[in-house]
Design goal:
With 193 residues, the chain is α+β, with helices and mostly antiparallel strands. The chain has one domain. Strands 1, 2, 3, 6, 7, 8, 9, 10, 11 and 12 form a ten-stranded mixed sheet that branches. A hairpin with a 2-residue loop joins strand 2 and strand 3. The radius of gyration is 17 Å and the shape is globular. It starts with a helix and ends with a strand. Keywords: Signal.
Length: 193
């Protein structure tokens, strides 16, 4: 159920119809976090090739505009652009407002095995990278914190960048508004050799 809630939040970005601003924001230190993301580190004997093979696997979905598919590489080059996700504001049919910040890259999901319902990342990703084991999704009355990977790269390049993002969702009951804030936590450049 938690995974479905997490996924639905990301699909919200693609269902935009009306533009309305929530007005109120939560004060998080985005600038400090986003300007100093840490380097993702590999576990022993893991390399860029392990990441590439996992992202090309059918359990991976990259939500790239109208396309939902694994990483696309031909002749050691990206065959698609993976761009930053723009901010967005809209109101759904039930009059809930959504104020969604932009974030680096395009959302990707490795939908493999998860160690618990609150796990942010699949076991397949945890086998490759240190640190992400400890990141868990959290929720309270009007706030949800999730973590996810995104990818950025240009068609024709032989490299791409992975990001680990923190998503903070707050709900303002007075204005009926969900506010999505994204903080960049980790970064990793991946080379296709």
């Amino acid at each position: 159920m938690k995974l479905k809630f997490f996924l639905i939040n990301f699909f919200v970005i693609f269902l935009c119809l009306n533009v309305i601003s929530c007005g109120e924001t939560t004060n998080y230190s985005q600038d400090t976090i986003n300007s100093n993301p840490k380097e993702l580190e590999y576990k022993e004997k893991k390399t860029d090739l392990n990441v590439i093979n996992l992202l090309k696997n059918e359990i991976t979905t990259i939500y790239n505009e109208d396309d939902e598919s694994p990483l696309s590489i031909v002749d050691k080059k990206l065959t698609k652009d993976y761009i930053d996700t723009p901010s967005n504001e809209y109101t759904d049919k039930d009059q809930y407002k959504y104020d969604i910040d932009s974030y680096k890259g395009t959302f990707l999901l490795v939908n493999g095995e998860f160690s618990s319902e609150y796990a942010s990342f699949s076991n397949e990703l945890k086998e490759i990278f240190y640190v992400i084991d400890s990141y868990k999704n959290k929720e309270s009355d009007y706030e949800w914190i999730n973590y996810f990977f995104s990818i950025e790269g240009k068609k024709g390049n032989n490299y791409f960048t992975l990001f680990v993002n923190q998503e903070v969702i707050t709900f303002n009951e007075t204005s009926n508004c969900y506010k999505y804030i994204y903080n960049l936590r980790f970064i990793k450049n991946i080379y296709i050799n």
